[in-house]
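The protein record quoted in full:
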Amino acid sequence: MSAAEAIQAAQAAQAAQAATQAAAEAARAVAAQPEALNVSGSATGLGRFVEPGVIDVSHGPILYLEDITVQFDGFRALNKLTLSIDVGELRCVIGPNGAGKTTMMDVITGKTGPRNANVSGRVFLGQTIDLMRMTEPRIAQAGIGRKFQKPTVFEQHAVWENLELAMQADKRWWSSLRARLTGEGRSKIEETLAVTGLEAEAYRPAGMLSHGQKQRLEIGMLLMQHPQLLLLDEPVAGMTDEETMQLAALLNGLRGTCSMMVVEHDMEFVAALAGDEGKVTVLAEGSVLAEGTLDAVKRDERVIESYLGR
């Protein structure tokens, strides 16, 4: 690309990834004072010091929400919500509109918290990292990546460049401009292109991709950050049937590399992810209505009444 385009791309990366830089600075502060991550209580088992940047999953769950209640001006969006996600698990979350699914993700990522809502309860990443005490940038730095419904990519730049910009650690525009891709970085981009099925589109402007391809590209950009937990909010909305199944194959292929929570209404997509034994959580009125295999929850009278219909 030209120097002007490179500067534009770097400035765009700076704006889009400023939170990551702030998170890195916060993480260095935590490293200097590791006691800030020391917590105790029933949600954590044993209070302990942990190495900064390492998620303690010795007890199994990578994410634990306990009695989360969120109120906005008297409206209760979440009502004593309690659930956990095991390390390496792919959990589907379903439920009617207004059930609290997006609010739950907002709480996990720090978008909603005590500073802007009436929030009570506890949210932990692993055994020791209290997410309720952390800002959005620090939570992202801790290893949580979030995919919103609408894809956000750098449309004027090639797929390869999108992945490269997502990978770079120093997001200041001058550092991004001067950055040189290492062999390891190139291999990571090639691997991510293969995982997302975008090898043939590597040098195509992202704005020319189909909706489904843009969704896969944004997931690839998150994967470049090495997340421990991926949150995906209605990722197949607006997709064709073929694109939906392509995304299902992509997420199934990620099993074992990171934990995932997928909020979705498309029941065929949920079935492709959950299979016969995967756990599905049903939310209604801000709390867990039912939980179990997809077949079990589909036969639950409460779920039929509040969500699926007869």
